[in-house]
Design brief:
heterodimer, A: alpha/beta, elongated, B: 112 residues, 6 helices
Chain lengths: 344, 112
């Protein structure tokens, strides 16, 4: 139920108003914290988690208007429902509160029946919004979800400079043939968990999972200081994690897993493609194709991680890459220089 | 005058919804702590010629007066909130007199 046990913050510089509102809210079964001005309220909102803010407008140090302005600019706070409680004179003030994102306006003295109705409605809206956000998070990534929240959802892309990584399990078909479908699903879940961990830990974003492979992007939607270095770091960590998994698998008498990773860097278009009802965040560009080809080439090269020239040139980290010369890759007109990344 | 100082219906509703004990404490907070501070703030603001501080203090007093059903006090505070800095402190003396009446009546009501 939306009307039981929510955690509310009351911001009001007037002690009588604060006490009375707090009392009314506690009588409705909510837990209440109080702030005596806007600055304190904002500090509490950033430190603790609340379901709703009841905000007075006329306050010293930081007014309710300033609090609303700061909340709109703050990704963590912009969706928190706000009910303005004020005895401000004039409808323009009320309009300004609504423009700044306040959900509702309650004139003082606050009518307890109206208070209950407005709070329940705001909490219900928040519950639905949280649910929606949760769904978006589960099916996108938190970076993509935040980007969508910030800029809204729009098909189309923007030009970025970034690094793309493809990874898949070598010889997956023979593994699936050697075990039950249940074991395969479990293996895939473990594989994805480990890979996500390494990729997101290095600042990358997994944007596609297909069968036994995945594609990830470094440098979009959020820029990264060193996308090449991050991608290579993620790749080496992935190999290490798979080796650890293989120790367990071999102890259990199972076939070891082998993965191939291809990495390429360049300009690309990143954005949402698809339709308005079903879309995916992806990148399009030469580097994407090249990364996929390099990943496919890991088998022939007998090296688990292959990168292109621009990635190799940007990697420092004290790594010595092994130049494999120019390789003619499928789908590429000219041969391209390929480098292998050492793994420990 | 005392029959109109506090609107009995507003006060009764406050007591019914928030509880008699709580309202009794709230009256004490208003009469002993908050209202004297607001009056002092109005006097300081007038002396300093600060229209904004004056308006804000009047606004706060209006808000509390209306909560308790002190309608005449609330109306006076509202007139000060909207009227800008007065020429002298005569309106504040009148306000103080009405505030005294209101707090007395409120204390009587909350103990009654």
């Amino acid at each position: 139920m939306a009307d039981t046990g929510a955690r509310l913050l009351v911001a009001d510089d007037n002690k009588v108003n604060r006490l009375l509102l707090g009392r009314s809210l506690e009588q409705l079964g909510h837990r209440v914290a109080m702030a005596e001005n806007g600055r304190v309220a904002l500090e509490m909102l950033r430190r603790e988690s609340f379901d709703l803010l009841l905000l007075d407008m006329e306050m010293p140090e930081m007014s309710g208007f300033q609090v609303l302005e700061q909340m709109v600019a703050d990704l963590q706070l912009r969706d928190l429902p706000v009910i303005v409680t004020s005895s401000l004179e004039g409808v323009t003030h009320v309009a300004r509160c609504i423009e700044l994102g306040a959900d509702d306006y309650l004139p003082k003295p606050v009518n307890p029946v109206l208070l209950k109705a407005r709070i329940n409605s705001s909490l219900e809206k928040k519950r639905l919004r949280d649910q929606q956000k949760d769904l978006v998070r589960r099916f996108a990534t938190s970076e993509v979800a935040e980007d969508m929240q910030r800029s809204g959802f729009a098909l189309g892309g923007k030009r970025i400079h970034g690094t793309v990584m493809f990874c898949d399990i070598r010889g997956f078909t023979s593994i699936t043939e050697a075990q039950s479908p249940e074991e395969t699903i479990e293996l895939l879940n473990t594989f994805y968990t480990l890979m996500f961990d390494a990729i997101t830990g290095a600042g990358g974003v997994v944007n596609q999972m297909v069968g036994d492979g995945l594609m990830s992007i470094f440098g979009a939607p959020l820029p990264l200081a060193d996308p090449c270095g991050s991608a290579v770091r993620a790749a080496r960590e992935m190999i290490e994690l798979i080796e650890m998994l293989n120790v367990e698998r071999q102890a259990g008498g199972k076939m070891p897993l082998k993965i191939g990773v291809g990495i390429a860097t360049g300009d690309m278009i990143a954005g949402y493609t698809g339709t308005h009802s079903r879309a995916t965040y992806t990148c399009i560009g030469d580097a994407v194709n090249l990364a996929a080809r390099l990943e496919a080439h890991t088998k022939a090269a007998a090296r688990p991680i292959l990168v292109d020239g621009p990635t190799a040139a940007a990697v420092s980290d004290g790594l010595t890459l092994e130049p494999l010369g120019e390789v003619a890759l499928k789908g590429k007109a000219a041969a391209v220089p390929v480098f292998a990344v050492p793994v420990t | 005058m005392s029959s109109t100082t506090i609107d009995p219906a507003i006060f009764a509703e406050l007591r019914d919804t928030a509880g008699a004990d709580f309202v009794s404490e709230l009256v004490a907070t208003f009469a002993d702590e908050e209202a004297p501070q607001m009056l002092a703030a109005l006097r300081d603001a007038l002396a300093a010629g600060s229209a904004e501080r004056f308006r804000r203090a009047a606004h706060s007093l209006k808000s509390n007066a209306m909560t308790f059903g002190a309608v005449p006090l609330g109306e006076m505070a509202r007139a000060l909130e909207l009227g800008g800095l007065p020429a002298d402190d005569a309106p504040l003396a009148a306000l103080q007199a009405e505030l005294d009446r209101a707090t007395q009546a409120l204390k009587a009501l909350s103990h009654g």
